[in-house]
Every structure is written in C-alpha cells, then in structure tokens.
Amino acid sequence: MVRQDMVACSKNDDETLDTLSCGGIAVLQKKNGYRYSLDAYLLAAFVSERPGTEILDIGSGSGVIALLLASVKGMHVTGVEIQEEMAEMSRRSVKMAGLSDRLHIVHGNIKDFSGKSFDAIVTNPPYRPVSAGRINPDKSKAVSRHELLIDLDTLMIKAYELLRPSGRFYIIYPAWRLPDLFFSMRSNGIEPKTMMSIHSHMNSPAELCLISGMKGAGRELSIARPFFVYSGKGTYTVQMQDVFAKLALPKSH
C-alpha cells in the first residue's frame, strides 16, 4: 500500500499516480506523455525466471515491467532508461513501492551501458523504423514508438553483449516485424525459442507477439497457443484475467 504522505511529496502537477490493474502497486506517469499499456502486463507475465534472477530491463520507461518483476516475481532488476525525466519519475515509483533494495533505475543510453552481465533481459522497445509512419510531436511518445535513438540490430548486439551464457531474452514486438526480429536475433547470437501471438479478439489477426530467445542456443522454436485479450462481449478473456491474477501481489504484502 502506498503511503499518502509519500505520494504527496512525490507526485508533480503534470503526473498521475495510477494503481496497476493487478492491484497493490502504483506507478507515476506523465499526464500527457507516454503511458503504459497492456503490453507491460503481458511481457511481465511472460517472463519465466526464478526469484533472485538478475534482470536487465532495456528502455524501462515508467518502470511498470521492472516494478512487476521485482515486486511480484522477486527478481533483482536493473532498468536502463534514456529519457532523464522518465528515469527520475520511475525512481520515485520504486521508492514508493519500497523496492529500492532489488530494483535500480539507471539514466543512460543502453549503447553506452556496460558492467556486469545478466541472467535475462526484458524489453518493450521502440518498433517503428524512422521511415514508417508519422513521428509523434511528443518527445516521450516518439522515442518510445520510433527507432529514433536505437534500432533493432543495435538492441540485439547489446543484448548479446550483456547476457550471460545461455541467458534469456524476452521481448514484445509487432507481428508485422517478426521477420526482422527473428533475422536480427539469429544474426546476433540469440536464438528464438518460444513465440506466443497476441490477438485483440478471437477473430482478429495477431497484432503483437511475445518472444523469448536464448544466447548461444540451438535451433528449435516452440509456438504457444494464441493469446486473446478480449472476449466477444468486450470484456477480458479468462487468459487476460489470469495474467492479472498471476501478477497480483499477495494480500499480506
């Protein structure tokens, strides 16, 4: 539970404090900037590492994925965020959640990040090439959606460099860019191992895919059953409800 005195001294006028749908965790976000979506829940639930695992979150943004992995799954997370204001805001979210002992946010460019290696890497990166689509005039939204500051190949090169041998790589990515993603992963020594397609409804095409890979692994891809977010009635499916349940904090937290 977030203490009200801490909230009062931590939230700025241009920010909101939002409780995650799984409950028990609050995160600061800009009112008009980039705001997290269901992607964060899906990716956090997809990560299948043990408590205590050393995780690197590339492009941690407002810190939602890192907060979920640290608080619910007991992992030790380092988030790297290039936007200084976003990194500073997410540090305050970490402090409010009481997770400073196992969640550390670094402001910096992942291209320049070095040091220890990690058991696993998680990322929800910008996915649109600069030449694809209109670039949002809001800087935080533009950086989060378009490859303005990092492209796919550079991301994979750094992931390989920072992963320990047989370390795992987790990403959520648009279905239309899967050929680019698989090519870049394999070219840079991270073999795709598991894929799950994400659909809004039962009859809609895949919009996103969850992919896990392994550094230096052999060639063998497992395709999980499709994931549907909404039922025909416009409510969350049992699958999506299970994600929220899986990410819920114990009542004793």
SSE order and pairing:
Blueprint: H1 4-10, E1 15-19, E2 26-30, H2 38-46, E3 54-58, H3 64-71, E4 76-81, H4 84-97, E5 103-107, E6 118-123, H5 139-145, H6 152-162, E7 163-174, H7 178-187, E8 190-199, E9 206-215, E10 222-223, E11 227-228, H8 238-246
Parallel strand pairs: 3-4, 3-6, 4-5, 6-7, 8-10, 8-11
Antiparallel strand pairs: 1-2, 7-9, 8-9
Residue-averaged pLDDT: 87
Helix content: 25-40%
Low-confidence stretches: 1-9
Beta-strand percentage range: 25-35%
N-to-C order of helices and strands: HEEHEHEHEEHHEHEEEEH
Computed structural class: alpha/beta
Structure description:
By secondary structure, the protein is α/β, with parallel strands linked by helices. It contains eight helices and eleven strands. The chain has helices at residues 4-10, 38-46, 64-71, 84-97, 139-145, 152-162, 178-187, 238-246; strands at residues 15-19, 26-30, 54-58, 76-81, 103-107, 118-123, 163-174, 190-199, 206-215, 222-223, 227-228. Strands 3, 4, 5, 6, 7, 8, 9, 10 and 11 form a nine-stranded mixed sheet that branches. The protein has a two-stranded antiparallel ribbon with strand order 1-2. Strand 3, helix 3 (64-71) and strand 4 (76-81) form a beta-alpha-beta unit. Helix 2 (38-46) packs parallel to helix 3 (64-71). It is globular and about 50 Å long.
Provide a quick synopsis of the model.
This protein is an alpha/beta fold. The chain has helices at residues 4-10, 38-46, 64-71, 84-97, 139-145, 152-162, 178-187, 238-246, and strands at residues 15-19, 26-30, 54-58, 76-81, 103-107, 118-123, 163-174, 190-199, 206-215, 222-223, 227-228. Strands 3, 4, 5, 6, 7, 8, 9, 10 and 11 form a 9-stranded mixed beta sheet that branches.
